[in-house]
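Running this now, will post back.
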Amino acid sequence: MLPVNLYSDNVAPAAPEIMAALARVNVGPAQPYGQDPETKALKSALSDLFGAEVWVFPVSTGTAANAVSLSAMTPPFGVIFCSELGHIETSEVGAAQLFTGGAKLTLIRHKSGKMDVDALDEAIRTAGKGMQHRSQPAVVNLTIATERGGVYPVRDLERIAEVVKRHELKFHMDGARMANALVTLGTSAKDVATRLGVDVLSFGATKNGTLNAEAIIVFRREIAEEMRYRVRRAGQVWSKMRYASAQLRAYVENGLWLKLAAQANRAAKRLSDGLLQVPEVRMLEPVEINQLFVGMPERVIAGLEADGIGLGRRDGGVRMVTAWSNTDEEIDHVIARAKIHGARAAA
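Update: finished.
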């Protein structure tokens, strides 16, 4: 067995269906910069998926998707409201502020990364809309599957959408692990994006099976017109875009993205159930998608690391992230090794 690496779902290989799509389009010439048939077909596929016409801009990373999206939604004097643990706050080195030309992030208190709806409403209401001396409310950024592995219930998403609409702001959704969230919620992309009035979605795919492709999905034509120039200026217009588009098209065709996410989520549940049998091991957050935040004795952590099992130390515990490619055999191996180290620690 190869070493099991649960450091992140980013460590997983690309899914076979994605590699097959790349091979399929790797024949003959194709027009560059998104004028190829594959990119045009991708727009149709995603419009069908979301139940409305959308405009699609393949990009190389989730950070690029978030930062460029927000740059087209927020003036330099604008305010972006997000969770205290939002990826744009904790992990993107101020990319949103850079690409917007200086917009301000206002952080909203959270539980498991999920913004408190009442706190969001209050922050927008008291931000000083129309006051010349204040940064102006512009966008609400929401990560549907949070940095602590939480998933917003549909009712909370609806309430946030109501707040956004009432205050006449724009709505940006960070969908880095959107597929994992949809599997948990048992709902559709249309229901959590189109129906709720999301203006721009950062559509994650690399964590869930693509090789190197994410997308900005725009639901409003006027934003899409500006986005054409924003992505070009950011260096995110691929010359050989057929390869990015082929990955994203294969990703959503026949529900592949949801099948891959379901496997990752199942692996997380199996891992959680097994680890809870180890003495002194506890879950620091509810396991809702494919991320586990686990408290465990140092002897167990060090033992798993010595076994070559990849994990990330976080806040006095560890984060373990399962992927579409994890097998039952791999998960059971991690559980078995944790039990061995746990028994030694208990002794």
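The chain has two domains: 16-256, 257-346. More later if anyone needs it.
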